């Protein structure tokens, strides 16, 4: 209810606006995380029409954070906001995914190498924990935990690279890649292998080994590209 009252009462004194900025940002982040997972794991299917009101009711979050989250998802290509037609979850496209991988290969290598060089001790410790989490998810074939671990891994890679331009560019691609993988993995992907390849990158970064991290990143993209091309043949 608070979020709706804020929308109806835009004239808020400057001091109160500053005080409320953090809670609203937190709600927007929560809305984004929930909606991104719903789209990536196909609970919101490709081509599905959605509305701010429905999503607000489903997630029990006000419409303003929902709107801001949808704008971010639109920038990442997961939804299309169509004037006078509403909001539609984007379709999955193999050709687009292959073009994305061309860019992703170069950026992932740069980010892995940079993170291995620049990560803090705390970030390296987190990479070691994520490597173990990837392998644990693979052992029990837990796809949702794998996807959540992957999202945290991608975010941490961007932060640990300490290059906001590379990290920002990479963040626009990961959700589309995760959704494509989730859509096809039971048909064509080897989840334990994918988890191992992620864990290899995480451990190389934790070990402060830039070249090993870059090579591990290339092996992951090789596997993802092979998987993506396979989906066009089945």
CATH domain fold name of the largest domain: Four Helix Bundle (Hemerythrin (Met), subunit A)
Number of helical elements? 10
What is the strand arrangement across the widest sheet?
A: 1-3-2
Q: Would you identify the CATH H-level superfamily of the largest domain?
A: GntR ligand-binding domain-like
Tally of structural domains: 2
- CATH architecture annotation name of the largest domain: Up-down Bundle
Order of helices and strands: HHEHHEEHHHHHH
The CATH class label of the largest domain is: Mainly Alpha
DSSP strand count:
3
Rg from Cα: 19 Å
The end-to-end distance, rounded to whole angstroms, is 49 Å
Beta content: under 5%
Mean pLDDT: 88
What does this structure look like?
The protein is mostly helical and 234 residues long. It is 77% helix and 4% strand. Strands 1-3-2 form a three-stranded antiparallel beta sheet. A hairpin with a 3-residue loop joins strand 2 and strand 3. The longest helix has 27 residues. It is globular and about 50 Å long.
Features:
single chain, 234 residues, mainly alpha, disordered N terminus, three-stranded antiparallel beta sheet, Four Helix Bundle (Hemerythrin (Met), subunit A), Arc Repressor Mutant, subunit A
Task: Please render the helix and strand layout as text.
Blueprint: H1 2-8, H2 14-40, E1 49-50, H3 52-59, H4 63-75, E2 79-82, E3 86-89, H5 94-118, H6 121-139, H7 143-161, H8 164-188, H9 191-206, H10 210-231
Antiparallel strand pairs: 1-3, 2-3
Overview in brief:
This protein has helices spanning 2-8, 14-40, 52-59, 63-75, 94-118, 121-139, 143-161, 164-188, 191-206, 210-231; strands spanning 49-50, 79-82, 86-89. With 234 residues, it is mainly alpha-helical.
């Amino acid at each position: 209810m608070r979020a709706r009252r804020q929308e109806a009462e835009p004239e808020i004194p400057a001091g109160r606006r500053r005080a409320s900025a953090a809670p609203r940002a937190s709600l927007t982040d929560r809305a984004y995380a929930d909606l991104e997972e719903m789209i990536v794991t196909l609970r919101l299917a490709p081509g599905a029409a959605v509305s701010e009101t429905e999503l607000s009711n489903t997630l029990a979050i006000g419409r303003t954070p929902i709107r801001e989250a949808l704008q971010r998802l639109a920038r990442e290509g997961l939804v299309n906001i169509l004037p006078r037609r509403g909001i539609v979850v984007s379709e999955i496209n193999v050709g687009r995914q292959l073009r994305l991988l061309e860019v992703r290969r170069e950026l992932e290598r740069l980010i892995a190498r940079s993170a291995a060089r620049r990560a803090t001790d705390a970030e390296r410790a987190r990479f070691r924990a994520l490597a173990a989490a990837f392998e644990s998810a693979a052992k029990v074939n837990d796809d949702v935990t794998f996807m959540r671990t992957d999202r945290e891994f991608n975010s941490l890679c961007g932060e640990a690279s300490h290059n906001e331009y590379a990290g920002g560019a990479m963040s626009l691609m990961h959700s589309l890649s995760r959704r494509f993988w989730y859509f096809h993995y039971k048909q064509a992907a080897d989840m334990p292998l994918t988890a191992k390849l992620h864990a290899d990158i995480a451990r190389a970064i934790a070990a402060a080994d830039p070249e090993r991290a870059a090579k591990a990143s290339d092996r992951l993209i090789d596997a993802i590209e092979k998987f993506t091309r396979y989906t066009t043949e089945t």
